[in-house]
User: What shape does this take?
Amino acid sequence: MIRFTKIKWKNFLSTGGQFTEVKLDEHQTTLVIGENGAGKSTILDAICFTLFNKPFRSINKPQLMNTINGKNLVVEVEFYIGKKEYKIIRGMKPGIFEIYCNGDLLNQDAAARDYQKYLEEHILKLNYKSFTQIVILGSASFTPFMQLSLGNRREIIEDILDIQIFSVMNNVLKDKVVILKDKIKEIDDKIEVGKHKVKVQQEYINKLETDKKRQEQDVQHKISETNQEIIALSAEIETLTADYNTKEESVSDYEDQYNKKTELKSLYKKLTERINKAKCEIDFYHDNDNCPTCNQIISENVKTATIGKHETKIIEVSDALNSISDSIETIEARITEIDVIKEEIFELQTKIVKINNSIIASQNYAKKLMADLDQDDTSDEKILEEKANLKALAKDIVLIANERSVLNEDKFYHEAAGTLLKDTGIKTKIIKQYLPVINKLVNKYLSSMDFFVHFELDETFNETIKSRYRDEFSYASFSEGEKQRIDLALLFTWRTIAKMKNSASTNLLLLDEVFDSSLDTNGTDYVMNLLNTLGEDTNVFVISHKGDQLFDKFKNIIKFQKYQNFSRLA
Assistant: This one.
């Protein structure tokens, strides 16, 4: 369980350079009051900023800095997890992010992102979404569970039930399956290459056996044909290379054309701005009879002369624009022409490469034929040697095939485990076991708030809401006050489940303006009764404008006020 004990901040939002400190575990219920803008909700933003580097409300991070002092923003929060005491310090100008455990600063060698990940995954075991669903219910920047997507609902419940490890395991398993598939594909490629080598080797042996009596004349004839083919291909390359060089030269002006186009477009833009400025001047003299600066009357002669001057300028600049537009069209036509030529150059390059490959293959073939003339490759000894090589190739293929069989077996077991770790596997079974408890708790809390409907979540986190007459409703069809009762019931449910699992349990509960919006008097009383039943290990902070109506319902009251443009505790 996370037991928050203290938070303090300075130069944060409207708070000044002196620390504002709030004890978080002294009283079971605390009412936070103050006028609008006095800084009541600052505690929500301070806690979220310290833990997750983002405020609770929709405030840009630079706006968190007090604009008067402009530096030394610091927020500190202290809490216990078991016997370990943690302190988180986060600040701006200068930037600070420090995590202390039992007074010792934890390793900061890793990047800030990894440091934040360590805080959320290994210490808090909560991310921002789950934290705001369990700890905070506010009127600003808060998305109730019922308004979240099904994916986000699943993420929050997995966090609360502490089963997100299955998702992590599934991701690791997916990576391993991908590696296995790559290895199997690599082995398949090796087997195919081996088969091809065996085929080539067998064909070579057959050739040795069947061509044993081939005349030297036949070999010489093939060499001659190959050389003629090489000569023909070389001539074709020369022709293609010449064509390639010619086309390369013809597009040498590409960069100049592109730069000219850029310059002309920039000039076109500037001239267009001149025309727009001149038109604004004309509109000004049409619409105004007095000078807005000195408040003197503008004579008709001045108006006419000035308007005429700007109209003449518009005509001159318009002519220049037309000329520039024609030049741009000409350049774009040239660039299009160059692009076509470049496509032709690419095709020529491809042809040249293919022909060069053919020449190399022919040269290699000619060398092999010459070697055939220089040595007796068709002897019985050579044939026996090649058959031994063939046997070795076949043995290698068998060994590789056995390795593939082992990898396929591993892949089968990994995929079977992956099926269990998917959302529809183990996690769904665990969630199904908790769903009756979740639904029972939600309905219990709804009844406690005098809201008698039957609420039910299924394993895909879709809701069914029925009235006592069994009419079905959706969350959206209820009034704002009824929605708020559902949101509160879910909040209390997640806290209870988290406490049962001890995965995301915390003493802190923050309610921001919950009593100020849609709850009627009876609803307020029901919620207060519910808050008083949460137990001594829960510390509830309620931020409200209705201090006069709620004053006698809380064991402790904190009041914020503005003093010399700074927020402070009264």
Observations:
- The longest strand covers residues 2-10.
